[in-house]
Design goal:
Layout (H helix, E strand, L loop, with lengths): L3 H14 L8 H17 L6 H10 L12 H15 L4 H13 L10 H15 L3 H12 L2 H17 L4 H25 L2
Helix pairs in contact: 1-3, 2-3, 2-6, 3-5, 3-6, 4-5, 5-6, 6-8, 7-8, 7-9, 8-9
The structure holds fe (ii) ion (2 copies).
The site of one fe (ii) ion has 5 residues, from loops.
Length: about 190
């Protein structure tokens, strides 16, 4: 059977190459999500690692080309076609599609362990990269209070989404507190 994890990884990098000037740092973000997934999977053998890792590589694939549509919905449909092309197991396909559709924890919420893990890793990765600072530097550039507030809201949402894995939320609590302090100080300067 095809190695769907590696095929998904290749699909992700081929897709990314088509958008070299895209605004989102997926070349950094998605490997960081993978890193968290592999770390958490070590202590959760009951979770289907294959479903999780395929979903990690495909979860943001609906983001480019940029449109007004929700990238989770677009991504679900791209992933469906991709997995069908390789005749991937139907039950697992549905599991992957749910992970992608629910990863934002907005209108559709994760209802499986795998989807909860993908959503948790997506949020955890934000706490260990520079997404809040990049939003705040954008706020400074555009003198936008809206963007600055967005960085705070995102941090709060991300921290909340970690709660499905309390051990990870606990591990990231010190950095969450520091981000909050840093964002507060930066915001005061950014919008001076
Ligand atoms: Fe996303
Ligand atoms: Fe993501």
């Amino acid at each position: 059977m095809a190695d769907m994890i590696n095929l998904s990884k290749k699909f992700f990098y081929d897709w990314l190459k088509k958008y070299p000037n895209g605004p989102y740092k997926y070349d950094f973000h998605v490997p960081e999500v993978e890193r968290w997934a592999k770390f958490i999977l070590k202590s959760h053998p009951e979770i289907d690692a294959e479903v999780v890792l395929i979903s990690v590589w495909l979860h943001d694939i609906g983001s480019y080309p940029i449109s007004k549509k929700d990238h989770a919905i677009v991504g679900e449909s791209i992933a469906r076609k991709f997995l069908k092309k390789y005749s991937y197991d139907k039950k697992k396909t549905e599991k992957v599609l749910h992970c992608i559709r629910a990863h934002r924890c907005r209108d559709v919420f994760p209802n499986s362990k795998e989807a909860k893990l993908v959503a948790c890793c997506d949020s955890a990765s934000h706490l260990t990269d520079y997404v809040y600072l990049s939003i705040l530097t954008g706020a400074r550039l555009n003198n936008s209070k809206g963007l600055a507030d967005y960085a705070f809201d995102k941090l709060e949402r991300d921290y909340k989404d970690l709660s499905a894995f309390p051990e990870i939320q606990k591990k990231l609590t010190p950095i969450y507190i520091k981000w909050k302090e840093l964002l507060k100080e930066y915001k005061l300067i950014a919008l001076d």
